[in-house]
Amino acid sequence: MLLGRVTSYINNWLPMKEKRLYQLIEKLIDASIPLWNETLSPLAAEDFVRERRIAYDEVKYDPDPRYWSKSRYPQQGHDEDDEDYYVRDEQWIRDPASRLPRTRG
Predict the structure, then answer these.
(1) What would the pLDDT profile of 65-90 be if each residue is shown by its tens digit?
(2) How far apart are CA 71 and CA 73, in angstroms?
(3) C-alpha 61: how far from chain center
(4) Is there a contact between 76 and 70 (Cβ–Cβ < 8 Å)?
(5) Distance CA 91, CA 97 (A)
(6) What pairs with residue 79 in β-bridges?
(7) First-to-last CA distance in the chain?
């Protein structure tokens, strides 16, 4: 007996036309439920304690560069093409600006 059932429309997959695909997805969900239960059930227990795999005291994040004044952004070089500068500027914004925590032990 299947526990996982697709009861709503999946974008661009008509249930009648893609019946086998819907059945496959239901089987995948059904196969996943025991592992989800195994993984998530301990979280419901009152005495559950999550142990940290990596011990650390704090994490510090640099401010989000999207909210900085333009003077703090990388500046365009005098011989740098506008498109090259734009690509470099966007890459600078997307790069994570976090510092890794210092670990103990």
Answers:
(1) 667 777 777 788 889 999 998 888 88
(2) 6
(3) 18
(4) no
(5) 12
(6) none
(7) 49
Is there a contact between 44 and 94 (Cβ–Cβ < 8 Å)? Answer: no
Q: What is the pLDDT of residue 98?
A: 45
Percentage of residues in the chain having pLDDT higher than 70: 80
Rounded distance, CA 10 to CA 18, Å? 10
pLDDT in tens, 34-64: 888 888 888 888 888 877 777 777 766 666 6
Beta bridge partners of 10: 13
DSSP 3-state assignment of 17?
coil
CA distance 11 to 63: 38
What's the confidence (pLDDT) of residue 62?
Answer: 65
Q: Return d(Cα 50, Cα 92) in angstroms, integer.
A: 35
Boundaries of every domain in the chain = 1-50, 52-105
